Amino acid sequence: MRTGISLDVHPLDPSRPLWLGCLSWPDHAGLSGHSDGDVAAHVVAESLLSAAGLGDLGSIFGVADPANAAITGTQMLQQVATLIAAAGFQIENVAVQIICQSPNISARRAESQTAMTTALGAPVHLTATSTDGLGFTGRGEGIAAIASALVSEK
Question: What percent of the chain has pLDDT above 70?
Fold first, then answer.
């Protein structure tokens, strides 16, 4: 068994749609980023890469490659699942926590868990918290997420 962890942060960008936890969130400002900015999908992917010793998100989906500008969180998770399997590992589970004031994650928690689990082919468990108005997430300037992953050798 091997574990990995990741933290990611994206500032809000009102000119973009919000993609979070492999879901579209209409009526919410989006997140900046080279891809769709899905901070939850990013930390899940990177925690898995960390667990398998395959590098980090930038080494796999670098901003220098224009093809990565259009990649979605779902596609990123699918590609990481393929890389994990090719490296001889099986994904056991991933836990991810989204840190934000808005949107209300609990309203779509089950839907997001299902979307990320389907993309990975392994269980993803989602929690959310706010920072009670403190810091950049509390002021609504961005969204952060942290994830831990467990993989096992096949």
Answer: 100
